[in-house]
Specification:
The protein is α/β, with parallel strands linked by helices. The protein has 11 helices and 12 strands. The chain has a single domain, classed as TIM Barrel. Strands 1-4-5-6-7-10-11-12 form an 8-stranded parallel barrel, surrounded by 8 helices. Helix 1 packs parallel to helix 3 and helix 9 packs parallel to helix 11.
Length: 240
């Protein structure tokens, strides 16, 4: 499994939110590129980046720090937040991004996901953010009636590289991930699933690793910044 350290960008800083609430932020680093280098130097092989302002604005807002991270680190990175058209997808991939994450647009314009996955094989992931089994969009501000598994299955033959599944109620709350729902999704589709939201201890990572589903990896943010998870131990666990 792959450990994806999360760098959430808001107003140019690396922050964490609780339950996706823009008013409840903790700034962890005013230099996101330095934070990225810290993760890479510790042995991380991927980076998970989120443009929080972009998710709400519907277009990239924190482009400068993302570009700086891509420039300074030599590991693949995936980015979500505000990527809602082909031109933006193309621009990011041209700048060296390994994978774009399409969230809101996967619900509102699924054809764009299919087109992008065809145009850029292996470089398009779908971000599915859920509250009580239903998909939420626009930076989690809007809830839909779309069921998580239905949305995931609709991209089964599209060539999507991964599905990043976030349980909003767990995100940033340090309560542990929704292992059951994540495993159920991973077992329901052939697309690799990455777990996100609520990872707060090494035990959580162990639970995901042994959940009986073929997970691609897990994303962790606050727990790494707080020191609740020792990065070296987590990397060793996933490699083992």
């Amino acid at each position: 499994m792959i450990l994806y350290p999360a760098i959430d960008l808001k107003d140019g800083n690396a922050v964490r939110l609780v339950h996706g609430d823009m008013e409840k932020e903790t700034v962890f680093n005013e230099n996101p590129a330095a934070q990225a280098l810290e993760f890479v130097n510790a042995g991380c092989e991927w980076l998970h980046l989120v443009d929080l302002n972009g998710a709400f604005a519907g277009e990239p807002v924190n482009a400068a720090p993302v570009e700086e991270i891509l420039k300074q680190t030599k590991v693949p990175a995936q980015l979500g937040g505000g990527i809602r058209d082909m031109a933006t997808i193309e621009r990011w991939i041209d700048k060296g991004l390994a994978r774009v994450i399409l969230g809101t647009v996967a619900v509102e314009n699924p054809d764009l996901v299919r087109e992008a996955a065809k145009e850029f094989p292996g470089k398009v992931a779908v971000g599915i953010d859920a509250r009580n089994g239903k998909v939420a969009t626009k930076g989690w501000a809007e809830e839909t009636d779309v069921m998580v598994t239905d949305l995931a299955k609709s991209f089964e033959d599209a060539g999507v590289a991964a599905i990043i599944y976030t349980d909003i109620n767990r995100d940033g709350a340090m309560q542990g991930p929704n292992v059951e729902a994540t495993a159920a999704l991973a077992n329901a589709v052939s697309i690799p699933v990455i777990a996100s939201g609520g990872v707060s201890s090494l035990d959580d990572l162990k639970a995901l690793k042994s959940c009986g589903a073929p997970l691609n990896g897990a994303i962790s943010g606050r727990a790494l910044y707080d020191g609740a998870i020792d990065l070296k131990e987590a990397l060793a666990l996933f490699k083992g």
